[in-house]
């Protein structure tokens, strides 16, 4: 049985790192210099310090990345002044797919024509020396947001730039973002990332890792999201990471959001402790609606306000915010700053001192917890020596199945659907090993739904576009 | 009326487009209408559609594009089919098939020139295409050419 354990650390990491940073775009980066540089960063740049200092409400993090250095410099300061607690650095999609040459060409073109030919900041092309300048006076954590299955070089350069919160993971940055990148390789490359994060951590100032729970952001049942979050926390812990945030995306049902938050918090702590990782500190991040937004700004604003209230209700440690221009494309810096302000206002006006509960929430908690335990139990019981291999095989055998993932290794047998209160139910469990009782319970809850469409596909479309 | 029950349809997204949600919905919708669906999923080149159509002896091919790459990839789509003796296969295209805002009629005319039988630009309801497929297979070009 392949249980997660602390002896699974990647071997020969220093030689391996030398190979990775031999890339010309690493620009002679020295691992010793980087470690010293990180050790001397102001404490406020570390996520753990920011989380510990937060008051009653969740921390706020917008999104944002522009190709040009100057534009990113301005955005960073605008977001800082608008009161963002975490500053994002969103990476362009060529860099995410390791196409550094194309990213560099399009960066030069963007510079020449003063137009954006990239959808984010090409960190590898800009390099660490210049990027350090982006943050020389910033006293907040910088969060690397990308979607990269092979993030080895990117993360070396991010850390060298003073970016000490790294989002991603072998599953969550492969299955929703790639159609053909081999999942086993993604898992191995993220072991590298986790190990390098651990090696650059010091007591009190750990490099922080965060998983991306929304996954495909399309009708993902909570049990699947929670199971994958727990797995990624365990995989990071194996490599020595001590500061980790699990996350999930707004489901579309308040009941289910409250229940998911509760199960996620409990189970990640439970399994980390069970496998000997008591030293890992965990946090909960909530993503505002990640699906299709209405192009109408009033509705988008209402949705952003509503999900801020939910973040309060679940006492999230951080909320990742959207803007009123979500349906229209990459938002301008001012729109992004406005979003931070709106969410700040909502969190202040609608703070929630006590956990909310009800019989319906309790029932949802019991169901999601039972399903998640079944799924994880089946994976822990798989034969084999290494935990990550069991995780890989879990996808091959359909034990883990992410609805609407574009990835070729995803089973696509699980069929989700919404019930009468908007909660995501498992209509067909495919090969996901939840118990017969739980599967029946899911069906029963679905049966209460009125206004079913005559065709499944119409119902699914309506369920996906619930917020439009 | 001839039924489309069991008709073989190749579907997929063209270009480096990775938007898969619509693709899955289309598969479900076609299957619910009784068609046999061969789904190439995302990131396809025209030759992938040709090879698949040949392999399964397809009645129709449905090409999707959400990010607008369709225009770039589709210009010799019909020719590629004709070249390998698949001139009779029905070719449909739909989604957001060009970049930027352009009048419906212009887009439809353009893709008809490329040799597509039906063009659906920014028309969200797949049931229209399914009804057209029924019509084309019963009275349309595909049936005539297959019989000759």
What does this structure look like?
The complex is a heterodimer of chains A (468) and B (148). Chain A is an alpha/beta fold and 468 residues long. Chain A has one domain (13-349): TIM Barrel (Alpha-Beta Barrel). Chain A has 18 helices and ten strands. Chain A has helices at residues 13-20, 31-39, 47-53, 69-82, 93-96, 100-113, 123-126, 128-134, 152-160, 183-199, 222-238, 254-274, 297-313, 333-349, 359-380, 387-396, 436-447, 456-464; strands at residues 59-61, 87-90, 142-145, 165-167, 208-210, 243-249, 281-287, 318-320, 415-418, 424-428. In chain A, β9 (415-418) and β10 form a beta hairpin. The mean pLDDT of chain A is 96. Chain B is of the alpha/beta class. Chain B has a single domain (8-147), classed as 3-Layer(aba) Sandwich (Rossmann fold). Chain B has seven helices and five strands, in the order βαβαβααβαβαα. Chain B has helices at residues 21-32, 46-56, 70-74, 77-83, 104-113, 126-139, 141-147, and strands at residues 8-13, 36-39, 60-65, 90-95, 118-121. Chain B has a five-stranded parallel β-sheet with strand order 2-1-3-4-5, sandwiched between helices. In chain B, β1 (8-13), α1 (21-32) and β2 (36-39) form a beta-alpha-beta unit. In chain B, α6 runs parallel beside α7. The longest helix of chain B has 14 residues, at 126-139. The mean pLDDT of chain B is 89. Chain A binds chain B through residues 177-180, 216, 218, 404-406, 408, 412, 455-457, 460-461, 464, and chain B through 18-21, 24-26, 28-29, 32, 41-43, 126-127.
List the helices and strands and how they pair.
The complex is a heterodimer of chains A (468) and B (148).
Chain A: H1 13-20, H2 31-39, H3 47-53, E1 59-61, H4 69-82, E2 87-90, H5 93-96, H6 100-113, H7 123-126, H8 128-134, E3 142-145, H9 152-160, E4 165-167, H10 183-199, E5 208-210, H11 222-238, E6 243-249, H12 254-274, E7 281-287, H13 297-313, E8 318-320, H14 333-349, H15 359-380, H16 387-396, E9 415-418, E10 424-428, H17 436-447, H18 456-464
Parallel strand pairs in A: 1-8, 2-3, 3-4, 4-5, 5-6, 6-7, 7-8
Antiparallel strand pairs in A: 9-10
Helix pairs in contact in A: 4-14, 8-9, 9-10, 11-12, 11-15, 12-15, 13-14
Chain B: E1 8-13, H1 21-32, E2 36-39, H2 46-56, E3 60-65, H3 70-74, H4 77-83, E4 90-95, H5 104-113, E5 118-121, H6 126-139, H7 141-147
Parallel strand pairs in B: 1-2, 1-3, 3-4, 4-5
Helix pairs in contact in B: 6-7
């Amino acid at each position: 049985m392949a249980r997660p354990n602390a002896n699974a650390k990647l071997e020969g990491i220093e030689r391996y790192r030398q190979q990775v940073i031999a890339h010309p775009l690493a620009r002679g980066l020295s691992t010793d210099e980087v470690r010293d540089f990180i050790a001397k960063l102001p404490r406020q740049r570390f996520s753990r310090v920011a989380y510990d200092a937060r008051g009653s409400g969740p921390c706020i993090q917008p999104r944002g990345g522009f190709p040009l250095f100057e534009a990113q410099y301005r955005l960073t300061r605008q977001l800082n002044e608008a009161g963002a607690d975490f500053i994002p650095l969103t990476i362009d999609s060529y860099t995410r797919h390791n196409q550094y040459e194309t990213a560099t060409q399009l960066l030069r073109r963007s510079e020449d024509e003063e137009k954006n030919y990239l959808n984010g900041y090409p960190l590898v092309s800009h390099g660490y020396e210049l990027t350090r300048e982006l943050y020389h006076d910033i006293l907040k954590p910088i969060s690397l947001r990308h979607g990269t299955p092979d993030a080895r070089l990117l993360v070396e350069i991010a850390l060298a730039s003073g970016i000490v919160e790294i989002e991603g993971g072998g599953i969550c940055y492969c299955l929703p973002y790639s159609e053909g990148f081999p999942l086993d390789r993604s898992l191995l490359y993220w072991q590298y990332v986790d190990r390098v994060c651990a090696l650059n951590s010091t007591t009190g100032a750990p490099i922080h890792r965060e998983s991306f729970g929304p996954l495909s952001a399309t009708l993902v049942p909570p049990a699947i999201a929670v199971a994958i979050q727990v797995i990624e926390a365990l995989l990071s812990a194996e490599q020595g990471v001590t500061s980790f945030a699990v996350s999930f995306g707004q489901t579309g049902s308040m009941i289910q959001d409250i229940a998911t938050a509760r199960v996620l918090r409990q189970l990640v702590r439970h399994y980390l402790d069970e496998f000997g990782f008591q030293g890992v500190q965990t946090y909960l991040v909530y993503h505002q609606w990640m699906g299709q937004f209405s192009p109408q700004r009033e509705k988008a604003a209402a949705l952003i306000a509503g999900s801020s209230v939910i973040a309060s209700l679940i006492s999230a440690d951080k909320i990742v915010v959207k803007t009123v221009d979500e349906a229209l494309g990459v938002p301008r810096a001012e729109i992004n700053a406005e979003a931070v302000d709106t969410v700040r206002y909502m969190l202040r006006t609608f703070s929630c001192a006590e956990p909310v509960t009800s019989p319906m929430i309790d029932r949802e908690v019991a169901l999601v917890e039972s399903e998640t335990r079944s799924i994880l139990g089946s994976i822990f019981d798989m034969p084999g020596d290494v935990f990550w291999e069991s995780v890989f095989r879990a996808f091959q055998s359909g034990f883990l199945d992410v609805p609407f993932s574009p990835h070729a290794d995803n089973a696509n047998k699980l069929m989700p659907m919404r019930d009468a209160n908007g909660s995501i139910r498992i209509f067909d469990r495919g090969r996901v090993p939840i118990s017969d009782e739980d599967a029946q319970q899911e069906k029963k809850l679905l049966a209460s739904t009125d206004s079913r469409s005559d065709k499944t596909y119409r119902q699914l479309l309506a369920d996906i576009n619930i917020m439009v | 009326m001839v039924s489309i029950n069991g008709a073989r349809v190749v579907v997929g997204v063209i270009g480096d487009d990775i938007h898969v949600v619509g693709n899955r919905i289309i598969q479900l919708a076609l299957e619910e209408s009784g068609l046999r669906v061969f789904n190439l999923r995302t990131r396809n080149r025209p030759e992938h559609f040709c090879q698949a159509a040949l392999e399964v002896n397809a009645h129709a091919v449905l090409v999707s594009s959400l990010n607008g790459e369709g225009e770039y990839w589709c210009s010799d789509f019909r020719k590629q089919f004709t070249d390998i003796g698949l001139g009779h296969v029905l070719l449909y295209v739909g989604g957001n098939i060009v970049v930027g805002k352009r009048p419906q009629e212009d887009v439809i005319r353009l893709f008809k020139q490329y040799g597509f039988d039906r063009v659906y630009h920014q028309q969200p309801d797949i049931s229209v295409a399914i009804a057209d497929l029924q019509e084309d297979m019963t009275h349309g070009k595909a049936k005539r050419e297959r019989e000759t």
